[in-house]
Task: inverse folding
């Protein structure tokens, strides 16, 4: 026993310590939020969001993908404070997050969040934050197109700042090390990153991305390129060629078979740790669902505003 202990180097002790601190840090953030935050102040809040999302996603399943991406892009930048939902103020000197490269022209589902907000302002004015609406909507989208659910803590408040220069989202051309650094800098683990990447089992990408993964399966590459050429390369193509509207672990099979459009997705095979997770998830839907749900909850606790910080926006696109 003593000998084993002696084998743990200082470096390992330090990294274990920092990992523990990081875990404590996210638990702290999660503690600020709580399950059923609106139980007394707006009991119908989660149901109102669910009904709105359900209607929109039934009419257009692509909206589930749009909403999941909104949640990721909001929480990753300046925390889950609905900063992504703020539109650029006309004639103002600075642009909002919405105008940044990864967002401009490709965000879907903003109007669904606005619809839910409008209904909530009638039912319980000035009570439910846009940040929480988005967190509920991402959970509901997961449920509708994935067939599984999770309880998501709430109590987030809305920020008053949205700045194009702060958008530091990962790029589809990132290699594994850069991706890992990007996620860890936000307080998410590499495991979280692999589990969350399964979101690429739904939705679409612009045809401009089809040449991004140089090791794309040649037959698949040919098919996608030809389809995109027909749309004059201005169209989009499904991220998951097998089950485009089903949130499942098909993504991990696609990674293994080199049928993922982005080299960032492909890079999950570039380390033993991430490749092992890819294999595990490709074989075990339950394992992926559990880890995805847990990672979505952690994503939803990044840099949240609670208590008296921030505000409860009246409309999600503009600050009060
Ligand atoms: C790991 C790093 C990631 C990179 C590099 C990345 C990159 C991208 C890119 C380039 C697109 C296509 C956008 C377009 O055509 O303009 C996309 C779409 C999408 N991403 Fe990611 N993404 C990442 C992680 C995530 C995560 C963590 C989630 C959610 C949990 C997510 C959810 C989605 C969804 C659902 C779509 C489809 C959106 C739609 O159909 O409207 N992505 N992603
Ligand atoms: C799949 O994952 C679940 C959850 O982690 C686990 O309980 C189960 O034993 C796994 N199944 C197989 C076949 O490995």
Result:
């Amino acid at each position: 026993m003593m000998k084993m202990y002696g084998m743990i180097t200082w470096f390992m002790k330090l990294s274990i310590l920092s990992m523990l601190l990081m875990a404590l840090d996210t638990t702290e953030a999660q503690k600020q939020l709580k399950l059923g935050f609106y139980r007394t102040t707006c009991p119908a809040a989660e149901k109102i969001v669910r009904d709105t999302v359900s209607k929109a996603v039934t009419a257009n399943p692509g909206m589930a993908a749009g909403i999941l991406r909104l949640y990721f892009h909001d929480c990753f930048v300046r925390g889950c404070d609905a900063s992504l939902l703020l539109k650029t103020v006309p004639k103002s000197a600075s642009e909002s997050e919405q105008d940044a490269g990864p967002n401009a022209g490709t965000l879907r589902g903003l109007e669904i969040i606005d619809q839910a907000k409008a209904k909530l302002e009638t039912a319980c004015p000035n009570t439910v934050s846009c940040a929480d609406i988005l967190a509920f909507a991402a959970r509901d989208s997961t449920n509708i197109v994935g067939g599984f659910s999770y309880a998501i803590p709430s109590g987030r408040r809305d920020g008053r700042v949205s700045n194009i220069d702060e958008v530091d989202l990962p790029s589809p051309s990132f290699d594994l090390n850069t991706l890992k650094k990007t996620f860890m800098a936000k307080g998410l683990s590499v495991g979280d990153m692999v589990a969350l990447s399964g979101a690429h089992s739904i939705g679409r990408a612009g045809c401009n991305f089809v040449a991004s993964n140089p090791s794309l399966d040649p037959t698949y590459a040919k098919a996608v390129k030809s389809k995109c050429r027909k749309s004059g390369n201005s169209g989009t193509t499904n991220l998951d060629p097998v089950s485009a509207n089903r949130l499942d672990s098909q993504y991990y099979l696609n990674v293994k078979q080199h049928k993922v459009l982005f080299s960032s997705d492909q890079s999950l095979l570039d380390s033993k740790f991430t490749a092992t997770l890819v294999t595990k998830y490709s074989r075990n839907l339950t394992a992926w669902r559990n880890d995805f749900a847990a990672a979505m909850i952690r994503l939803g606790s990044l840099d949240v505003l609670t208590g008296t910080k921030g505000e409860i926006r009246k409309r999600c696109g503009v600050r009060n």
Summary: The pocket of 2-acetamido-2-deoxy-beta-D-glucopyranose (ligand 2) is lined by residues 284, 286-287, 290 (CB under 6 Å). The chain has three domains: 1-31, 45-166, 176-299. The chain has a mean pLDDT of 92. The domain at 176-299 is CATH 1.10.420.10 (Peroxidase; domain 2).
